[in-house]
Amino acid sequence: MRIHRLLPLLLIVALVMALVPVASAQETVSMRIRCKAVPPVEEWRCNNFAQVESQVEAALGINLELELIQDNLDWGPYKQEFQLAAEAGEAVDIILSGHEDIGTWAQAGFIIPLDDLIPNYPEFADVVPSLWESMKAPDGKIYGIPQDAEARPLYFSKPLLRDLGWSDEEIEALPEKIKAGEFTFADMLDVAQEAVELGVVEEGNGYWHRPRNGPDFLYFYFGMGGQILDEAGNLVFDKQAALDVYKLFEDARARGIMAGKHLGIEWADWHTAVSSAENVLFWTGGTWNWGDWAVNYVADRGGEDYLFENIGVALVPALKTGKPITLTHPLAYMVSASSKHPDVAMALLAAITTPEANNRHAIESAHLGILNAQLESEDYKNARFLSLTHPMLEYTTFIPNHPNWGAWSEAYWTGIQSVESGEMSAEAALDVVVNRLQNEIPGIVIR
Amino acid sequence: MASAASSASAIARSRSQAMRARLTAYGFLAPAGFLVLVFFFIPMLLILFLSITNLATTNFTTDVWRMATSRDPKYIVGLDNFERMFADEFAPKILFNTLFYVLATLLLFNVGLGLVIALLTAHVDRRAGFLFRALWILPRITSPAVYILMWKRIVAASPFGILNQFNELLGRPEANYFQGEAWVFIVMLNGFIGASFGMIIFTSAIESIPKDLMNASLVDGSTIMQRVRYVILPLLRWPLLFVTTYQTLSLLTSFEYILLFNSGGPASQTEVWSLAAYNRALNTYFANAQWGYGSAFAVVLVIIGVVMATVYMRVFRFNELVAEPKIEVL
User: Fold this and answer.
1) What confidence tens digit (pLDDT) does each residue in A423-447 have?
2) Is the bond leading into A175 cis (omega within 30 degrees of zero)?
3) Are A245 and A339 members of one domain?
4) What's the Rg (C-alpha) of chain B?
5) How close does chain A come to B16, measured CA to CA in Å?
6) Is the same domain home to A282 and A334?
7) What's chain A's average pLDDT?
8) CA torsion through residues A290, A295, A301, A303, sign
9) B289 to chain A, minimum CA–CA distance in Å?
């Protein structure tokens, strides 16, 4: 009887005791962060967060539960995954993606503007100022925090040039000649044709670009004098510049320099073919490829030493404009509108926006630095490949943060594939591309 | 009076029996009807609706009701998507690709090879036939991603690709099979899986042909080819109709193997209509998905599918095939 009376009291006591530890504990905040990274060289993109976890916990007085989701999914499905999750309101807190997605995702309301939050963190003041421009949506607000930058250079095989009779001095001088505009893209194609004719490389292996669509192809268009945005911010398609690009590839195909052999092949097969420096004479890629090749493709031949010995790196030689060129495509961390704790997300982002954290990523993965202090740091300066490629930023271009850039790029790329695979002439490809652009992009300026 | 009342009650009884029988029939149909409603009619209505909107990532909203009722030109664009679609110079190419893909895969593999395998394996030792068919089923029960991965390794560039290794041994130049011969591989890799469906249906149909007919044809001195031509094939009309109809519609909407193999490239050369719908609606490299435009592509597919199904049913006289037998089968 007595026990029965005491029971409610005992229950209350038990309940209070159960709740006490929770009440006194710090708030637990879970953060899901999604990164695309080539393993293992680019994995600091997400792993850097784990390094600063306790630091941020202490600073904010919270318990962090970090979920780092990182793999090397293709960009297409990677972005699709975020979009579908964002539509359902279940996106990760922080997404790493190309800066060009800011235009589309900001307008869709998938990511949040960061202008009001950025001044709260002194770390962001050290970011190279020009990078902030690429973090802005057409509404003028900043939606991303720069993660890394790169250049997209021309690579060439030193042994194959030697087989063509080039001396070591000539080979070593090539990057400077390209930089001075003395060795143009047309000269490069001449050398490549000679290599094919002499059997130094197989037909079609004189020059390769990446096997799939990507930002690279825009520098050909820029190099032919094309413009991408007008003063009012409308997308522009310059027919003459595009035709020149298509004719360039049509001509390269007709001369046996290109044969569409690498179109659509697997990335791994492409990397294998070029990184050995035994199959392809000239090719264009990204600086980050260097880090990937060293660890994932030629590690058994000597890694980076093998690359320095056998592969040269230079700006993309001058096209019609007469100036060498490259393209930078900064990646950005964006805070999703689904995040319940954007302030915590920003604190984490600030904590990894330091020379130490970013050097870990930049040096290992052959990406260019994003912070002033980082560029001055000894580690960065001593990184041989970065010291070769960092000055390329002087010649760089960017893709636009325009919501319809995707449709523009797909149409333009369709033309390149059509010409290179021999399916269409340059003129026919241009007609098809103009037709598709007019169909898919309202308000595009065709001229 | 009494007889009138009894006949009235008899009529009432037979009516209620008929009603009960009808209800029972509907009851049995209900689960299938529910599935068709939820997974075919409602999505079809949604796609019809989306096809008159320009919903895309850039004007994204989840408030479909407001979008539907607002008549806001920001969303509701009428038939603009269809105009755009038919104005695209690639549209005829993609349509031709689709017809080629469906007909080639269907005739050569899903029906053709399926029938050949069924006939061959039904005429060899029973256990050997069973084993062969079981092996042929394996790709169908393999995940499409894994299956395509295997194909990609077969056709990959040197030094990985098996075919290119043979090219090297034979002193032939390396080939990019994702480009030049892409159609051959797309039809083959779909067909090897597609054939197993016909194979199962045809085998069971061949094995259910009454032995007397076979024996009678043997007594008449028929050769194997004559038996196939005059006994087996005429009796396979219903399975042939079923496999042809089902596989046509299934091929019209199937694009996953092409997507995984080469995404319909290069430059839409192997892009089929359903893949075009998917590419517009969901898959763009630079993030702006056009759901409205993609849905317009899908609507065309629904129309083609319904027309083809109707034509098949008329040509093969579906009603006669499912009519009650004119003689009692014991």
Assistant:
1) 899 999 999 999 989 988 889 999 9
2) no
3) no
4) 26
5) 50
6) no
7) 93
8) positive
9) 9
Q: Are residues A136 and A240 in the same domain?
A: no
Tens-digit pLDDT profile for residues B82-127: 998 988 888 999 999 999 999 999 999 999 999 999 999 998 999 9
What mean pLDDT comes out for the span B189-211? 93
The CATH number linked to A317 is: 3.40.190.10
Write down the ipTM of this complex.
0.80
The answer to whether residue B326 scores a pLDDT higher than 90 is: no
Contact B287 A100 (CB under 8 A): yes
- Segments in chain A below pLDDT 50: 1, 21, 23-24
Q: Name the region of B116 (left: φ>0; alpha: ψ -120 to 50; beta: rest).
A: alpha
**Run of H or E including A27:** strand A27-36
A297: nearest Cα among A58, A79, A41: A41
DSSP B223: -
Compute how many other C-beta atoms are within 10 angstroms of the C-beta atom of residue B129. Answer: 18
Stretch B214-220: mean pLDDT: 90
Q: Highest mean pLDDT: which of A278-282, B4-8, B288-292, B325-329?
A: A278-282
Residue A257 CA to residue A195 CA, distance in Å, equals 9
- Within this chain, do residues A106 and A177 fall inside the same structural domain, yes or no? no
Chain B neighbors of A263, CB-CB under 8 A: 176, 178-179, 265-266
Sheet with A207-208: strands ordered across: A207-208, A282-284, A154-157, A311-314
In a domain, A11, yes or no: no
Determine the Cα–Cα distance for residues A24 and A11; give it in Å rounded to an integer: 20
Q: What is the C-alpha to C-alpha distance for residues A111 and A333, in angstroms, rounded to an integer?
A: 10
What is the DSSP secondary structure assignment for residue A95, as one 8-state letter?
E
- Name the residue among A87, A110, A421 with its Cβ closest to that of B267: A421
Q: Which CATH class is domain B95-322?
A: mainly alpha
Residue type, A146: P
Question: What pLDDT score does B4 carry?
Answer: 67
| Alpha carbon distance B48, B51 (integer Å) | 5
The answer on A437 and A342 residing in a single domain is no
Q: Do A253 and A289 reside in the same domain of the chain?
A: yes
Antiparallel, parallel or unpaired: β A154-157 and A282-284: antiparallel
Least CB-CB distance to B286: which of A100, A264, A423? A100
Residues 6+ apart with CB under 8 A from B44: B302
The answer to whether residues B186 and B261 touch, using CB atoms and an 8 Å cutoff, is: yes
Question: Letter for the amino acid at A166?
Answer: W
Q: Which of A356, A380, A397 is the last residue of a domain?
A: A397
CA distance A356 to A364: 12
A55 and A142 inside one domain: yes
A248 and A112 in a common domain: no
Asked if B60 lies within 8 A of A440 by C-beta distance, the reply is no
> Domain span at residue A369?
29-150+329-397
Spatial distance between the Cα atoms of B36 and B41, rounded to a whole number of angstroms? 7
CA atoms within 13 A on the CB side of A396: 23
**Residue position matching structure tokens 């309202």:** A442
A9 lies in some domain: no
Look at residues A82, A145, A76 and name the one whose alpha carbon lies nearest to residue A108.
A82
Is residue A20 assigned to a domain? no
Number of structural domains, chain A?
Answer: 2
Phi, psi of A72 (to 5 degrees): -110, 40
What average pLDDT does the segment B300-325 reach? 82
Distance from CA of B54 to the nearest CA of A (A): 11
Q: Does residue A5 sit within a domain?
A: no
Q: What residue type is B101 in one-letter code? A: Y
Chain B window 74-103: which residues touch A at a Cβ cutoff of 8 Å?
84, 87-90
The more confidently predicted of residues A437 and B285 is: A437
Q: How far is CA A293 from the centre of its chain?
A: 16
